[in-house]
Design goal:
It contains 2 helices and 4 strands, in the order ββαββα. With about 80 residues, it is α+β, with helices and mostly antiparallel strands.
């Protein structure tokens, strides 16, 4: 069996992912393909409208800031009773 991305043999390779409808592929080849297609966790960034992409960016930044704030509060032993 051959990798659909590089054409190399996948039989005997330990780092293989099985793709529905395509068969086995090298994990590295699959990841490179997804990066080049700008896909992450089944989200195709190139297919998103500009407004949707900007909204997602804001949501991600908000989540990262919340996690950073939460981690800092835990490190400083601060507990916020009323938020």
């Amino acid at each position: 069996m051959r990798c659909p991305y590089c054409g190399g043999q996948v039989v005997g390779d330990m780092d293989v992912v099985v793709l529905v409808g395509q068969g086995p592929a090298h994990t590295l080849c699959y990841e490179r393909y997804n990066i080049s297609k700008r896909v992450y966790k089944d989200i195709d960034f190139s297919a998103l409208a500009q407004n949707d992409l900007l909204e997602m960016k804001e949501m991600i930044l908000t989540e990262l800031n919340a996690r950073q704030r939460s981690d800092t509060d835990i490190q400083n032993n601060e507990i916020e009773l009323f938020g």
